[in-house]
Design brief:
Helix content: over 70%
Radius of gyration: 21 Å
Shape: elongated
Structural class: mainly alpha
Largest sheet: none
Order of helices and strands: HHHHHHHHHHHHHHHHHHH
Number of helices: 19
Number of strands: 0
Strand content: under 5%
Length: about 325
């Protein structure tokens, strides 16, 4: 996690919630909807500003802004706008709930949301989840996952990560040796040791551990994980490792996978772009271009259309 991260959405100066609420009401009133006005307003405001607009809207018109938007919009465009309107932790809770609800669980969404966030972000999600769904996230997740994968996610969700302890080189060398002994140095991998270290240590400490690992093993921790672990556990470990090294590059790979392949994974596109816009979407754009020699905007424009495309491109900011 780099200390300096570049968002694409920072909100607007001279913000006036009442004016924006009135403009949105006008865009939805009468015949037809002015989608462009909705895009222009909501993609340029910060989430805190959108919450203020929402309150002003209810105060002034006695209506719920999200309900009104939903009744006027549809498809993936609606998904983008609703994602922008919800407080970030509530939106991620909704996505977690959706990926565990019904038949089968989409583990890639659990990994994308839980393995890449800071302790504080996880704590906000956990708190919001129980408030929204009347059941603890850990409990719901345990009923939908199993084995070492479940144990790893449970450690993360219960706030095992230690963000307080500073970085400690001597301890990092010990942890790296433990990882080596638990993996490459023996037949079969001792996942318990991997889980403990990958879920407990801060991202800054993990960075040191992975450097030490390379000194001991002569290859990177990523290479070891890919060689020795499989399934969703491998994907979860890799997400943590890659986000420690370069979170923006991990999200760029996620977006690339969403736009390539048989069909577009719109759920992933919407979620990553909307949830990273105020954090590091500009970094993700740069990494995308570095990795694929194409702009993220051109790949998104090739896979989407209409207001949905316009809303995503607006969130990407200037090319």
């Amino acid at each position: 996690m780099t200390s300096h991260r570049e968002p694409t959405v920072v909100g607007v100066p001279n913000f006036n919630a009442m004016e924006d609420a009135a403009a949105l009401r006008a865009a939805m009133k009468g015949f037809g909807t002015d989608e462009q006005a909705i895009i222009d307003i909501l993609t340029s405001r910060s989430n805190a500003q959108r919450q203020a607009i929402s309150q002003a809207f209810t105060h002034e018109y006695g209506r719920d802004l999200i309900d009104d938007l939903k009744s006027e919009l549809g498809g993936h465009f609606e998904d983008v706008i609703v994602a922008l309107m919800l407080p970030p932790e509530e939106y991620l809770c909704k996505e977690l709930n959706k990926c565990m609800d019904g038949l089968g669980t989409d583990e890639s969404v659990l990994i994308e949301i839980l393995c890449t966030r800071t302790k504080k972000e996880i704590a906000d999600i956990v708190q919001a989840y129980e408030r929204l769904y009347n059941r603890p996230l850990a409990e719901h997740m345990c009923s939908e996952t199993s084995g070492d994968f479940r144990r790893l996610l449970t450690l993360i969700v219960t706030g095992a990560r230690d963000e307080e302890a500073g970085v400690d080189a001597a301890r990092a060398a010990e942890s790296a040796q433990q990882l080596y002994d638990a993996g490459e140095a023996k037949w079969g991998t001792d996942e318990e040791v991997f889980n403990k270290i990958l879920a407990h240590e801060s991202f800054a400490q993990l960075k040191l551990i992975f450097e030490e690992y390379k000194n001991i093993a002569g290859r990177t921790i990523e290479q070891a994980i890919k060689a020795e672990v499989d399934g969703e556990l491998k994907d979860a470990y890799s997400a943590i490792v890659e986000c420690v090294e370069n979170a923006a590059a991990w999200f760029a790979m996620r977006l690339r996978a969403a736009t390539q392949g048989a069909g577009t994974d719109d759920g992933c596109l919407v979620r990553v772009i909307c949830s990273r816009a105020e954090i590091d979407l500009n970094d993700i754009k740069k990494e995308y271009e570095r990795l694929y020699d194409k702009t993220l905007q051109s790949d998104i424009e090739g896979e989407t259309s209409g207001d949905y495309k316009r809303a995503l491109v607006a969130l990407l900011g200037p090319a």
